[in-house]
Amino acid sequence: MSALERTEKREFVASLAAVFAETSIVVVTQNKGLTVAEVTELRRRVRAAGANYKVAKNRLANLALEGSQFEGIKPLLKGPTALAWSEDPVAAAKVVVDFAKTNDKLAILGGSLGSQTLDASGVKALADLPSLDTLRAQLVGLISTPATRIAGVLQAPAGQLARVFGAYSKKEEAA
């Protein structure tokens, strides 16, 4: 092994360790014969969701996992594996699970949400949750809805009073 290969491997391990320090979820998948076009489509979908997908040598990934909160996924790193990760705890799981539903050549082995190790069904359950952006939008909707209802309720009696006063004034004018 040349010094250049060793340097490249060290840099790869260091960059993957930095990813593990910053991310909130890692999903481990196994490629069971995906074509280049299918992998390209998967990578495009993953990027569009704000996540990352990388094929990693298991030995190097194990080195990068040392001391990280994701050490629980080490037993999953056997055979042709790839890692998907994102800062949004749902994005990586959602895009990989959605792709696996339409392509049986991608198997989900499991993952880790922080220090909590997940099996394949745990990753699928996580993928069913709404994304962080969706949750934020729902929360804003919940917060703003009562305000609009309160404004409507407060305006309704005032409008009714105005109509009653208007009716009385028309009645007095007619008399």
Automatic annotation (TrEMBL):
It comes from the Bacteria. One of its GO terms (biological process) is translation. InterPro entries: Ribosomal_uL10, Ribosomal_uL10-like_sf, Ribosomal_uL10_bac, Ribosomal_uL10_bac_type. Keywords: Ribonucleoprotein, Ribosomal protein, RNA-binding, rRNA-binding. The keyword RNA-binding applies. One of its GO terms (cellular component) is ribonucleoprotein complex. GO terms for molecular function: large ribosomal subunit rRNA binding. Part of the ribosomal stalk of the 50S ribosomal subunit. The N-terminus interacts with L11 and the large rRNA to form the base of the stalk. The C-terminus forms an elongated spine to which L12 dimers bind in a sequential fashion forming a multimeric L10(L12)X complex. Belongs to the universal ribosomal protein uL10 family. Forms part of the ribosomal stalk, playing a central role in the interaction of the ribosome with GTP-bound translation factors. NCBIfam families: PRK00099.1-1. This is Large ribosomal subunit protein uL10. It comes from Granulibacter bethesdensis (strain ATCC BAA-1260 / CGDNIH1). The lineage of its organism: Bacteria, Pseudomonadati, Pseudomonadota, Alphaproteobacteria, Acetobacterales.
